[in-house]
Batch of 3 targets.
Target 1
Amino acid sequence: MVFSSALFIFYFLPLFLAGYFVTPRRWRNVYTAAASIIFYAWGAPNFLLIFLASCLVDYLIVRQLAAEAEPSRRKTLLVLSTLINVGLLLYCKYSNFFVEQLSLLAAALGLSAPHWTKVVLPIGISFFTFHKISYVVDVFRRKSEPTSSFAEYMLYITFFPQLIAGPIVRYHEIDQQIRHRQVSFDGLAEGVWRFTLGLASKLLIADPLGTVADHIFKLNPANVSTGYTWLGTVTYTFQIYFDFAGYSSMAIGLALLVGFRFPENFNRPYVAESVTDFWRRWHMSLSRWMRDYLYIPLGGNRVGPVRQATNLWIVFLLSGLWHGANWTFVCWGAFHGAFLAFERSRLAPLFFRLPALLRRGVTLFAVTLGWVLFRSETLSEALARWSRLFGFGPEPKATAAFARATVISDAGITVLAVAAVWCVLIEPLLEAMQHNETERTPLFQRVPALYPLALAIFVLSILALEAGQYSPFIYFQF
């Protein structure tokens, strides 16, 4: 069940909200956790019992950890909980990949491949694993008190707006909201607005651009011209942003409807002035998680330049692997890690002396090249597409398959232009309106025109939903 489906919009969400507001306050956490489990079971019923069992074990371990005073025992329980969660993630997400590599090695040595039944990847496992680790670490560090009941714990782990594809909400960010929260008219209005914007980002921008990108990326790179290779790369660059940022906006909006305020996950990443700045703006919840639970424990910025660069590489190699069990993701992480290491090197001042507009252009160019790695199925495919981007090799002959109308329509060109204008002009304007430091009045009270605008955008999105095909969010596979 995805947020951009008729099943969710017209059935699950209205029924959930109706039940939530008629449920007594003291039972709302139980009700929301139960509804969230039903939401998850709809998409992953075969994994549900294992998921619930792992949550129960984790909850009991952390209760014992919170009650312990002996530091060594606390550390043992922390390690035990982390090993259980990471072990489950490794088995479900990476065992197929590791066995595949062993099979290739065995074939090279003339040995028979190991017998293996492929493991089906449970949806959302990368995200709820990080939530579970955040919970145990925050309690271990005494940054937060443990939940007072299993229902509260399950609400944090399973809350359906962030369960499948984030944002990654660290426990200490919402622990007080789990215990005490209020629903206001302003919160409801903002929630509807954020959900509507996210829905439009997905259905009106990401999906049409994804159709173009999928058409080009499915073809042999050797048969695609340089111009069409750039078209596929650029459309995917905007598709993944509007798809993932759209999901995050919908999740934030849904949380607001029941009184939760999630941290933002995107902040105009395509106007970043460096790759470091890009990661302060892109998937910010992952960047913060990696910083607080991996980079800083490794030494962070408190070590020498060589060790710091090594820490960055480790973090981004693992970040790449977190995105998927494929060498393309590992190399994508290494690609970004190399830029971050450079931006902390002695040569970095040469780059940062460039005009801001030029730095933005260079950064966007580097990020766009990285998306080729991210989107390609294999490293050889990514290298071939990079080669075509720069015009290496003979230009393939034009064919009927590459008549412009078969690749991108006039409407598609319009959507691509809208995506570019939105990223460069409209988002900064909306952000300035939303976060005006001298004006504390809620946005919807200052700009009444947003009410009919939201309704118009919602109607357009529903029309696109009815006319289109099922298109899951890109990050569901992670």
Target 2
Amino acid sequence: MNLCLIGHDFRYELEKLVRIFMPFEKIKFFDSEVLGESYALTVLNEHTAFAELNLFGENVKCEKILESNDPKEHELKLAVCLYDCFVVLTGYEPKWGILTGVRPAKLYSRLGERAEEYFKNSLMVSDKKVKLCKASVKGEEVITSLSRPDSFSLYISVPFCPTRCSYCSFVSHSVEKAKKLIPQYVELLCEEIKKTGEIAKNLKLRLETVYIGGGTPTTLDAEQLTRVMDTVKQNFDLQYLREYTVEAGRPDTVTAERLIAIKEGGATRISINPQTMNDAVLEVIGRKHTAKQTVEAFTLARKMGFDNINMDLIAGLPSDTFWSFKNTVEEILILDPESVTVHSLSLKRSATLSTKGQLPEIQMGRVASDMVDFANETLSKKGIMPYYMYRQSKTVGNLENVGYAKRGYECLYNVYIMDETHTILACGASAVTKLKEPKGPFIKRIFNFKYPYEYINRFGEIISRKDGIYKFYKNYKEEL
């Protein structure tokens, strides 16, 4: 597609808008009128915003009057013009309208009393998504109010999985290929945890939550899990700890020995993530377990005393249908977890091969939208309410990821990381430390190397980067 930008420089914003409807389209940018078989012409004049869209041999135009000299209004009007053109030509009206940001609840909260009107009338957000946003803001505000200027959370990355799922966008390695790296990785990870704990104690920071994620942390054996969790106990002050999550993740990695290690290690919350309860879909996406194994893993965790279990689902998986997804939600509710996180599939180019039509992503989006609506309505009726939300780029239907929980079982860490409430000190491959200004919005990031072999081979550099935490907090001594 040719995207022509005449009289303005809103390239980034309009490209994101095109991606809502055509996430994989190759876009060429021009500052003059360059037409073709597929093009979007956007023009900003002194008094009007104008868009013309040509797709599949069809053409539509839209024009809106500018009411001020505010560049933000100009950008918004151009986006709405182009959005309206896409809606007419595709027959598809995304539930989030022109909103492309990853933290809609944060924007909603910042807008205050005018938020609902602005979302509906300016951003073209549907009533259902506005309602979801309001509920998420309410849930998040309760949790963020618990944080103090000296608060922080600890994230520990275990970037290994039994196999790699076809939809995965995380930096993770299958055990078959990376098993030999795990012992040395655990050894160095514990060193990094020790160093990080020393820094936190010296700075007198207050640990609120711990989250061990991945990958699949339960690819580690029981002894390795115990070692990692004991290292946390020995090097951090846990007296203020509100929550300790370990992702048990793949049901085929859940064993009694690992659950004992996690329980004795101090975890208060785990995730057992089926993604779907349809065996045929599990096979398509490369998950080497069955729905029966999910039930067995969940039942085992209950027997061993875990009373705060989350389960992750994904809407829009390849070969999944609305009725199959409905069945998944209903089977999960029989198990009665304390929380359920409903993700929307993050699209890959290969996902388009499983559907037919001019814009297959739109067809997928319609089904996924029905799925997440069903999950919202059904979970809410059971008292499992939305409490946090975020979005990713190129998700099917431009949809959202939502955490649902029974009252008192909300995952604090999920809110803190997405809201950027306070500092996250992170350890392990691909982990990113986010240093948050105690009483302001500024965030500084310290990146670890992505891949386990890099983490192992350049570990000295990672440890030296940790001194950046001291340098950051040196500027905020009086605010802690």
Target 3
Amino acid sequence: MTTHATRDKLIEIGADLIAEQGFNATGINAVLSRAGVPKGSFYHYFSSKEDFGLAVIDAFAEQYDARLAAIFEARDVSPLERLRRYFATGKADMLSCDHARGCLIGNLGQELSARSEVFRARLDQVFRAWERRLVACLEEARSAGEVSDDLDTQALAGFIMAGWEGAILRAKTVKSLAPMECFEAVLFRQVLARELPVVS
């Protein structure tokens, strides 16, 4: 394999292992072994384990943002339907791993934010980029008359991100999609629902 391909493979395998067992529990040798790369070669590709972890975050964020772009930039459905597709994708991901992994960025945020300012800052950048996607979607929904005109899209995007990440965590602990489904239902039925005019 080329150097670039080997590096990409290490990042891909590292992301899988970190999603399964966390960053601190993922040993460099385990990544190299699964990748079939000779031990001792790690530092040819990364300056440190922290550098490797940041590369994993960057790769995941880039791939996931491409998925978000496909969802939120679609013009064949309404803005709120795009939001439903976003939730549907998250639930499908959770089912595909039997409720074992959850969100890699969310997992790393819980594990590393209090221990490393470098990781905290990078993870926060990723979350803020996701929130901007939500803000844009909600602003389109407001312009289309799907939600209230006085909706605070910035605040609501932050609420959705925090609530959805919490629902993902809870889904892992109960081994069920129920928390994610509950969050989505409350959001659409009680938060986003427009008040209908009273007919006298």
